[in-house]
Amino acid sequence: MSTKSNLKSEQDEDKRDFLIVSTYALAGIGAAAFVWPLIDQMNPAADTLALASTEIDLSSLEEGQAITVKWRGKPVFVRHRTADEIKQAQEVSLEGMRDPQTDSERVTKEKYIVLVGVCTHLGCVPLGQKSGDVKGQYGGWFCPCHGSHYDHSGRIRKGPAPTNLEVPSYKFLSDTVIKIG
């Protein structure tokens, strides 16, 4: 009788182990099914992902003209610089600049400058994109709110702004098409 009770006892233990493992497995699956939607909802929405990058055709942009496009809710300034603007941007002495950067560090192709059009002082949008706008003392952009002056390369030259206008990540897909973001 003892062998029969030992056998039954072992079978009971095997059943119990199976039930415990099954319970833990189902609890794990249930927890994952509950938590996954909570984690998934933290992913960016489709409309946000659509704004992550934008392509701009620059073929209609003539020398000296500028356009403003929206990217990630911010204005982006794209200017087709003249030969004189390029020369001035390249010949500037970096000595004494608050945020020294050469023009070549700020552009991919020297005839186009691409900048996030938000003043680095308090987030205003500087003037200088339209032909009649005040472009400031250095001919680039001017923030009238607090008097920040930027040059043809978007570098801070005068005023309270602590840094240059930001250069977004961008690349040329062709000679006249850029992808920002």
Work out the count of structural domains: 2
Order of helices and strands: HHEEEHHEEEEEE
According to CATH, what is the class of the largest domain? Mainly Beta
- Averaged pLDDT, please? 86
Q: What does the overall shape look like?
A: elongated
CA radius of gyration? 30 Å
What is the fold named in CATH at topology level of the largest domain? Rieske Iron-sulfur Protein
- Count of individual helical segments: 4
The CATH architecture of the largest domain can be given as 3-layer Sandwich
Helical fraction: 25-40%
Q: Going across the major beta sheet, what is the strand order?
A: 1-9-8
Structure in words:
The structure is a single chain. The chain is α+β, with helices and mostly antiparallel strands. It has two domains: 43 residues; 132 residues, Rieske Iron-sulfur Protein. Helices cover 31% and strands 21% of the residues. The chain contains four helices and nine strands. A three-stranded antiparallel beta sheet has the order 1-9-8, with no helix packed on it. A three-stranded antiparallel beta sheet has the order 2-3-4, with no helix packed on it. A three-stranded antiparallel beta sheet has the order 5-6-7, with no helix packed on it. A hairpin with a 2-residue loop joins strand 2 and strand 3. It starts with a helix and ends with a strand. The model has no long low-confidence stretch (mean pLDDT 86).
